[in-house]
Amino acid sequence: MIKYLIVLNAFLFFIFGCGSSGDISDLNPDERLKNALNLYTEEDFEDAAIEFEALLLQYPGSSIVDDAQYYFGMCKFYRDEYILAAYEFSKLVKNMPASEFVADAQLMLAESYYELSPNYNLDQKYTKKAIEEFQAFIDFFPLNEKVAEAESKISELNEKLARKEYTTAIIYQKLDYYTAAIKYFDAVTEIYHDTPYAPRAMYGKIQLLMDREREDEALAESKKFVRLYPEDENFEEVEELKNSLEAKLKGNYSFN
């Protein structure tokens, strides 16, 4: 225990006595915060992070702790340490719900995951997490001036997810795994119906159904396509197919 206290005291001495801003040991919490914010404003994010973390350790119950927590997260964000930034912002949102920084912290939590979102062909766990956090921001702060920005980024991220599903469907189609291809085409049209990949997916499904001579199903999909996507580049082709199938199937039923 004594050894632990010696190590802890040495660490605290290093943090509080060896900061880059000189001798600040006699400053009160507000003055310490001002000093840290000056470093932040000067974009000295490394030293600012040290000072904000020191404030969090030394004054955990003070009125400036939420300021320190938020700007500590911002330092991590601007240093491209997005996973750490997300963690710090989430701490503020969960532990300091009355703080004036909660809305900004929730948005920056989403932005941190947004920055971690990779190319569409890679694992999309951070993309989905970013969407979840942007949506939480919209739900809890619907009147915030940055809601439109959050909605725009959700649309962008959903399009990335749609592209991944659509590309997977095309791969299965080329491999002649028709059932799997249709499954992924359906996922695009059902989950990402407001992205540019939805009409492409439905068009791809129609083509697959025709290739497999599943004309009843192709007709049903063609009717939906014509109703939902009148401006799509494939509209005329699908409408012509719909009319042809309707005439053919009507003739077959009449003959029977």
Task: Provide a brief overview of the structure.
This protein is mostly helical and 256 residues long. The chain has helices at 2-17, 29-41, 45-58, 65-78, 82-95, 102-116, 125-140, 147-174, 178-191, 197-211, 215-228, 235-255.
Helix content: over 70%
Tally of helical segments? 12
Question: Could you say which structural class the secondary elements and strand pairing correspond to?
Answer: mainly alpha
Distance between the termini: 92 Å
Strand content: under 5%
Order of helices and strands: HHHHHHHHHHHH
Quaternary structure of the protein = single chain
Unreliable spans are 1-21
Radius of gyration: 28 Å
Let me know the largest β-sheet: none
What does this structure look like?
This protein has 256 residues and is an all-alpha fold. The chain has helices spanning 2-17, 29-41, 45-58, 65-78, 82-95, 102-116, 125-140, 147-174, 178-191, 197-211, 215-228, 235-255. The longest helix is centred in the middle third of the chain and has 28 residues, at 147-174. The termini are far apart. The model is unreliable at 1-21 (pLDDT under 50).
Keywords:
single chain, 256 residues, mainly alpha, elongated
Topology, element by element:
Blueprint: H1 2-17, H2 29-41, H3 45-58, H4 65-78, H5 82-95, H6 102-116, H7 125-140, H8 147-174, H9 178-191, H10 197-211, H11 215-228, H12 235-255
Helix pairs in contact: 2-3, 3-4, 4-5, 4-6, 5-6, 6-7, 7-8, 8-9, 8-10, 9-10, 10-11, 11-12
